[in-house]
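quick one before i forget lol
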Amino acid sequence: MAQNLDEFKPEEFGYVIIDECHHGTANTYKKVLAYFKPEFTLGLTATPDRMDGENLLEIFKNVAHKLDLKMAVEIGELVPIRCIRIKTNVDLSTVRINGIKYNSQDLFEHMDENGRVKLEDIVDYFIDFYTARKNKGLVVEKKSSIFCKEGYTRKDVERNILMNPFKRFEDMRFMKRSREIEYVEFNRHIFKKLTLEDIAWIKSHCDKKLEEYYKNRF
């Protein structure tokens, strides 16, 4: 919308609702909020406390309603938090921490001595990630996503990842463009037209190149 504000009049909306309003401090959001002149603006977010310290109240002025995690558990809106600590032989001393969580790319690089990632590990990560979002009442993905539905299998998740792997891996920060590994993203329309034999060959070729990369690296 920030790119198409001239299609609207500043007074066109009397009531403006901003979902995921913790992004309100971003320049694109500020541009939209400064342009419109509604009688009332409502911001909705499940994560009001920003890690960078930016104050959302400077934009939205006051808190109309607040339900934090602790209170949501106490009144039965969310299930109680259970923390299960598992001992592993993985050395986390060199794994970066992004705010309150470990860097996912670093974690997968430290999963074994060669830094290799197994597909089943990635499937586990996706399932855990989207299950956690759903349990917290957060938006999972677009409505057509398998993660919004019940009864999906591990095979469904694997297929979902491999249909557009580079975008998936970039979104989850498993992979990024670098001088060490160069890759291109397939056009999804072309990818759908490939035969199973073609897809199998591409996967085999990628596996071979990654194996060569790891052999040269370690």
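fyi The first helix runs from residue 27 to 35.
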